[in-house]
């Protein structure tokens, strides 16, 4: 258990997150050739981007899990890397993924600094005190000064910054990366100026860059393990994922400093990883990873205990035990059967709709993990079926995709058309693409007369009165919970004032 490192990579779109993911896997020996996201043809298909729309557009739209191992100091460290979508339209998937990790790597573009989505994701990490290592990417291109970037991280994120390396020049003047711990410089080689393994142990650094590096070392706090693990300090590495600079140092830092499995919040307080009973929670469900088998995989973050293949666990949503005969460890869409798993591991559980996001699994069914919310959708659309004979397939597809968290689906109390809700526009493109590719259902989306939705709770009498007056604006979500479909934010405020005994919630915790 103490040798597990479960971490995510977070960034704004195009900061180089997927490229860094591949280089980490390459360094970890998990793959033998890195496919570049922006390359052509087959090379474009990043290993962590396996969905058709991802391969077409060169972006990540779903979280994926990759497990690999590496030797450090005579011990085998197991890395569980969760690659998350960078695009803000998929922030719900990213948020839920961040509930399953113990640390994160934050990737920043050296030319752009901290961008809006980076800031949002950082705030999610801060809510859970997730420790962060910062990687300033693309220093082989023209960018802002290292000091400016460090100060921006310190100011905007209210974190102490501790640089662990320094670029020797940037862009056209780039001559390598100085590693403060070893005093060596990783040098660019060949026509492509990549890092091919050459480290200068007695580097002759031009005076300007030597002075900068010295100032960076003395002008910022030294690395403090306790401050980092408490989420108060971030070690900062400079590099280029595309040219392989700084990647080894990054994975070494995760192995040496990132925390092993941490306690997880539950209704009865934090559950420690040392607890004997096997417990875990489902943070993601993915359908059709293998289109040939129409499979459904639930991703479980194991919180405590030693899991053994064939063990019976009880899902909180089902109430009766299920035997887990084929638990899976992942390498993107590749997989292998796991005979055992420890706290911190991410295992996949094949199932047919019995497991859902937010479910707790445990041996005794006496634990409920908390903190996986649904967010009120910001875009609502009606689904228009092109072939009316496929109504049943559409319902199945929408149920599957809502279980995954790709969309939310609402069934109006009056009217037959399903309404889908999403946080971002790109989710709608993913919906239409996956309906066609995976379910052979051709559909279109049309405007719905609603702008947002709120979950309603209250005593039976108040609920009944509200329903009788507002049936045309009510729907049920896929759990059967009542939802008020509002035409505008003003509508929400008006109903809240008019019905003080009811709670109109923008989030719903699972």
From TrEMBL:
Keywords for the protein's UniProt record, in alphabetical order: Cytoplasm, GTP-binding, Nucleotide-binding, Protein biosynthesis
What InterPro entries does the annotation carry? EF-G-like_DII (IPR053905), EFG_III/V (IPR035647), G_TR_CS (IPR031157), P-loop_NTPase (IPR027417), PrfC (IPR004548), RF3_C (IPR032090), RF3_dom_3_sf (IPR038467), RF3_GTP-bd (IPR041732)
Q: Where's it mainly located?
A: cytoplasm
According to its UniProt entry, the protein's GO biological process terms are:
regulation of translational termination
The Gene Ontology CC terms held by the record are: cytosol
Where is each Tr-type G domain found? 2-262
Tell me which Gene3D superfamilies the record gives. Answer: P-loop containing nucleotide triphosphate hydrolases, Peptide chain release factor 3, domain III, Translation factors
MF terms per GO, please?
A: GTP binding; GTPase activity; guanosine tetraphosphate binding; translation release factor activity, codon nonspecific; translation release factor activity, codon specific
Q: Which domain of life is it from?
A: Bacteria
Cleavable signal peptide: none
Tell me where in or outside the cell this protein is found: Cytoplasm
Q: Which Pfam families match?
A: EF-G_D2, GTP_EFTU, RF3_C
Q: Where does GTP bind?
A: 11-18, 83-87, 137-140
Q: Which family does it belong to?
A: Belongs to the TRAFAC class translation factor GTPase superfamily. Classic translation factor GTPase family. PrfC subfamily.
**UniProt function note:** Increases the formation of ribosomal termination complexes and stimulates activities of RF-1 and RF-2. It binds guanine nucleotides and has strong preference for UGA stop codons. It may interact directly with the ribosome. The stimulation of RF-1 and RF-2 is significantly reduced by GTP and GDP, but not by GMP.
What name goes with this protein? Peptide chain release factor 3
Query: Which species does this protein come from?
Result: Erythrobacter litoralis (strain HTCC2594)
| Gene field | prfC
């Amino acid at each position: 258990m103490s040798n597990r490192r479960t971490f995510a990579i977070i960034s704004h779109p195009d900061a180089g997150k997927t490229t860094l993911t591949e280089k980490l896997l390459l360094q970890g020996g998990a793959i033998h050739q890195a496919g570049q996201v922006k390359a052509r043809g087959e090379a474009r298909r990043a290993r962590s981007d396996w969905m058709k729309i991802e391969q077409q557009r060169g972006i990540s739209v779903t979280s994926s899990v990759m497990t690999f191992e590496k030797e450090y100091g005579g011990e085998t460290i197991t890395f569980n890397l969760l690659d998350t979508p960078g695009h803000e339209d998929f922030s719900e998937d990213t948020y839920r993924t961040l509930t399953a990790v113990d640390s994160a790597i934050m990737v920043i573009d050296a030319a752009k600094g901290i961008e809006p989505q980076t800031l949002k994701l950082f705030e999610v990490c801060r809510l859970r005190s997730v420790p962060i290592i910062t990687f300033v990417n693309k220093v082989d291109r023209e960018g802002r000064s290292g000091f400016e970037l460090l100060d921006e991280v310190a100011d905007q994120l209210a974190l102490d910054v501790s640089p662990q390396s320094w670029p020797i020049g940037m862009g056209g003047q780039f001559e390598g990366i100085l590693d403060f711990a070893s005093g060596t410089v990783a040098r660019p080689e060949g026509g492509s100026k990549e890092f091919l393994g050459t480290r200068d142990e007695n580097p002759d650094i031009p005076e300007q860059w030597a002075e900068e590096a010295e100032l960076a070392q003395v002008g910022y706090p030294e690395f403090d393990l306790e401050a980092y693990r408490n989420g108060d300090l971030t070690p900062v590495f400079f590099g280029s994922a595309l040219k392989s600079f700084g990647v080894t140092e990054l994975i070494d830092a995760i192995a040496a400093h990132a925390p092993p499995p941490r306690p997880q919040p539950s209704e009865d307080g934090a559950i420690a990883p040392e607890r004997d009973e096997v417990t875990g929670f489902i943070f993601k469900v993915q359908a059709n990873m293998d289109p040939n088998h129409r499979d459904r995989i639930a991703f479980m973050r194991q919180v405590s205990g030693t899991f053994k293949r064939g063990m019976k666990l009880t899902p909180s949503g089902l109430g009766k035990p299920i035997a887990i005969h084929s638990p899976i460890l992942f390498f993107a869409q590749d997989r292998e059967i796991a005979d055992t798993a420890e706290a911190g591991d991410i295992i996949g559980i094949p199932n047919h709709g019995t497991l859902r996001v937010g479910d707790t699994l445990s041996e005794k069914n006496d634990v409920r993990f908390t903190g996986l919310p649904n967010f009120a959708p910001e875009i609502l659309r009606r689904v228009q079926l092109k072939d009316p004979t496929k109504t049943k397939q559409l319902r199945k597809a929408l149920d599957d995709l809502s279980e995954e968290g790709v969309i939310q689906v609402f069934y109006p109390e009056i009217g037959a058309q399903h309404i889908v809700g999403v946080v971002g526009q790109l989710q709608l493109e993913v919906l239409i693409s996956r309906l066609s590719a995976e379910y052979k259902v051709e559909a279109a989306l049309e405007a719905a007369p609603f702008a947002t939705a709120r979950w309603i709770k209250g005593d039976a009498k108040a609920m009944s009165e509200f329903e009788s007056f507002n049936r045309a604006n009510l729907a049920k979500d896929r759990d059967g919970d009542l939802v008020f479909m509002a035409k505008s934010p003003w509508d929400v405020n008006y109903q809240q004032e008019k019905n003080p005994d009811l709670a109109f919630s923008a989030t719903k915790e699972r």
